[in-house]
Design brief:
This protein has about 725 residues and is of the alpha+beta class. It has 22 helices and 25 strands. About 35% of the residues lie in helices and about 15% in strands.
């Protein structure tokens, strides 16, 4: 029996699709309920009905009647009245994106995906392409192997691992699947998941079912719902705060996972493999005391429409910004009492990276403080935030549908007041936090339980070739579990001390060297996969990053920077920001074939947004910008001043002026003596000491600024 849910937005008004509208009209006649009153909102997309007020009752329309109503005669149709949340908008936008229509008509992510998967074609249609994202897969086309027959279709699968935790069994299964059904590589993502590329359509069910049956999941790894929940990957197994953060990530992932069952229907024939959710998660999901739920719906939180766009959550502990906490829709930070026990959470909201080129109304945004809640209330608070975005986020323009735009448009105080209606109480004041630090967790560390972990640097997260082979051998031989970090690296867990030397030797044979031997540039660098598989990519990223790092390191040597000097470089093939380039000290964002925007001014601890500095710079021309930039930094930075802080302080006008007059390291003019009044020199020296720079350097900056202002005055 096919079930169609009729979801009201008011106690006696129901918004339903065309098919359901026709059926509801028949039911209204058959039951003497009031007839449909009028069409509203989306025109033919929605119909407003009065009646059908018997909540929880069902009316069947079988065979012939269904056919007369324009419905598939091969199944019966169930019309089920469903009570909606009490505080959604009273009207819907006149226009909705086509993806919204696809979701609404999909029978909770089933139709037409199921039908499309059964065809002989190597691809699926547009509607199914949108729906399969919710199941954890993207349809892709390898642009470099297109033949006379057209596109080379394949699928990318993305797993879902809260806090990046991967069992030994699942890692070995993913490694096997990559060889048997993929392109022979595993990709670690910036959201602590695996990506498996190159799966053909006729192998999708085999791969999906294998992952599910080995206690893995891809459900919700993509699509308009909560994505993988980040948390520090480090296995500090006796640290109460880290353990609580990771446990909370697990619970939020469970709370916000789809419930209607289409995932298991499609991939394991309806068998639900996963273990039961924790009782507090079930209780929070089912609670509707403040109007967050669709009562009686198989999707109590998401309804038929799910969310307007993807939704990202991260959980961490104070100081640990391994998760890029401010880039998420929701960021949670543990707060402890005097005994070190977690008592609650600070909540950030409204972060996000995606934007579109030459559309200034789209932009990256940092999350901002919302407030504090007690630990027992955190699931209810997160659910209230999700409900607010669900009901008020834009559904007409997907470029503007992320929650960051809602927070930006409303302001934090209005946003908070609406969330508090769904939450049922006021948020407490945001607690003071210490400064954030980036933590890579590379190298050896102690877990606290007598065992060790080893953070392994994986170039751009791509596990392939001999590295893949040796990692598998080590993980299998020592029965290790692993963690995926938000910086695309891998942590080997539960290592006994007596194994360390043998593991070091095995990994060194394939170039997985000790962290002390790594180039510091590689430790913080990130790139998205981009070409040739990502359909959004317009420039290289993963394949281009190794050359960029080599060129930057060569320029370091040329301008006189030390081997220990470094900066955060991130690179993406499009403006969507999957590798979070807008948080980098030096971000490269593809804006055309072999062409990039250059973003400057992010911080080493990922707490300040970079700003665009130049656009449409060809990849072969990047050194002409990088060299003067690096020399300017080396010659004029304050003591220990990071590159991002330097560019942010100096400003774009000064940097552009310096690049214009730069003539190369060898041709830079030497310092010349300038006589100044003794009192002026004393004051200059005093200020220079406070700024931790040389008096000559400060004098040069002041005079350069004066000359620029003088030149501007002459022009005006």
């Amino acid at each position: 029996m096919r079930s169609v849910v009729v979801a009201p937005y008011a106690s006696s008004s129901y918004y339903i699709s065309n098919a359901a509208a026709s059926a509801a009209a028949a039911v209204a006649v058959a039951t003497s309920a009031e007839p449909p009153s009028k069409l509203v909102g989306g025109g033919s997309e929605f119909a407003l009905y009065k009646g059908l007020r018997r909540i929880g009752t069902e009316t069947e329309i079988g065979g012939q009647n269904a056919q007369q109503l324009g419905l598939a005669s091969r199944c019966s149709l169930t019309i089920q009245a469903v009570q909606a949340p009490v505080r959604p908008p009273s009207t819907l936008p006149a226009k909705r994106s086509k993806v919204e229509i696809i979701k609404e008509n999909s029978n909770y992510l089933r139709y037409p995906l199921k039908e499309e998967l059964e065809t002989e074609a190597p691809n699926i249609n547009e509607a199914a392409t949108q729906l399969i994202k919710f199941h954890g897969s993207y349809q892709q086309d390898d642009r470099e192997v297109r033949g006379p027959g057209g596109k080379s279709y394949q699928f990318m699968l993305r797993t879902k691992q809260p806090a990046g935790k991967v069992s030994n069994k699942l890692y070995l299964v993913m490694d096997d699947l990559a060889d048997q059904f993929g392109i022979g590589t595993l990709r670690l993502t910036t959201r602590q998941t695996f990506q498996l590329h190159g799966v053909l359509k006729n192998n999708l069910k085999t791969v999906m079912s294998t992952i599910i049956r080995n206690m893995g999941s891809t459900l919700g790894a993509c699509g308009d719902l909560n994505r993988n929940v980040l948390a520090p990957a480090v296995p500090y197994n006796t640290n109460k705060e880290y353990l609580y953060a990771q446990e909370t990530a697990d619970k939020i992932a469970a709370l916000l996972a789809p419930q209607a069952g289409s995932y298991y229907d499609l991939w394991v024939d309806g068998e639900k493999i996963m273990s039961a959710d924790p009782p507090d998660v079930v209780e929070a999901r089912n609670d509707n005391s403040h109007g967050t739920n669709f009562e009686g719906s198989p999707e109590p939180i998401y309804g038929t429409q799910f969310l307007p766009r993807k939704f990202k959550v991260a959980v961490t502990v104070p100081t640990d910004n391994s998760v890029d906490i401010l880039t998420n829709d929701v960021g949670l930070v543990t707060i402890t009492d005097d005994l070190g026990d977690v008592k609650g959470f600070n909540i950030y909201v409204g972060g996000g990276m995606g934007r579109s080129h030459r559309m200034e109304h789209t932009f990256p945004r940092l999350a901002e403080p919302l407030g504090y809640v007690a630990k027992d209330d955190i699931l209810y608070a997160v659910k209230a935030i999700v409900a607010t975005q669900r009901d008020y986020g834009r559904r007409d323009d997907r470029r503007l549908s992320r929650m960051k735009y809602l927070v930006h448009e409303w302001g934090i105080e209005k946003f908070k007041s609406v969330v508090e209606q769904y939450y049922g109480k006021k948020f407490e004041n945001f607690m003071e936090l210490p400064p954030w630090e980036f933590k890579s967790y590379l190298g050896w560390g102690q877990q606290g339980d007598g065992k060790w972990f080893l953070g392994v640097s994986i170039d751009n997260g791509r596990i392939k070739g001999e590295v893949k082979k040796v990692l598998r051998e080590v993980i299998q031989k020592y029965n290790l579990s692993v963690r995926i970090t938000p910086n695309q690296n891998l942590i080997l867990c539960d290592v006994r001390k007596t194994w360390k030397a043998r593991i070091n030797k095995a990994l060194a044979q394939v170039g997985l060297v000790n962290v002390r031997s790594l180039d510091p540039l590689s430790v913080t660098a990130m790139a998205c996969p981009a070409l040739p598989l990502c359909p959004l990519a317009i420039a290289e990223a993963e394949r281009g990053m190794p050359d960029i790092l080599k060129r930057v390191r060569a320029l370091f040597e040329k301008v006189g920077l030390k081997d220990s000097d470094s900066l955060v470089i991130r690179m993406t093939g499009c403006p969507n920001g999957c590798a979070r380039p807008y948080m980098a000290e030096l971000g490269l964002v593809g804006d055309g074939p072999n062409s990039y925007q250059i973003w400057l001014g992010g911080s080493t601890n990922q707490t300040r947004l970079a700003q665009v500095f130049m656009e449409r710079v060809k990849v072969q021309e990047l050194d002409k910008v990088f060299e003067p930039l690096l020399f300017y930094w080396k010659s004029n930075r304050r003591n220990g001043e990071p590159f991002g802080d330097f560019t942010h302080r100096i400003g774009w006008d000064a940097i552009r002026a310096y690049i214009d007059i730069y003539k190369g390291v060898e041709k830079q003019q030497p310092l010349v003596p300038v006589k100044v009044d003794g009192n002026i020199f004393a004051g200059l020296s005093e200020v220079a000491e406070k700024l931790q720079v040389k008096p000559s350097q400060l004098a040069s900056e002041v005079l350069l600024q004066y000359l620029r202002e003088a030149q501007k005055s002459e022009i005006q």
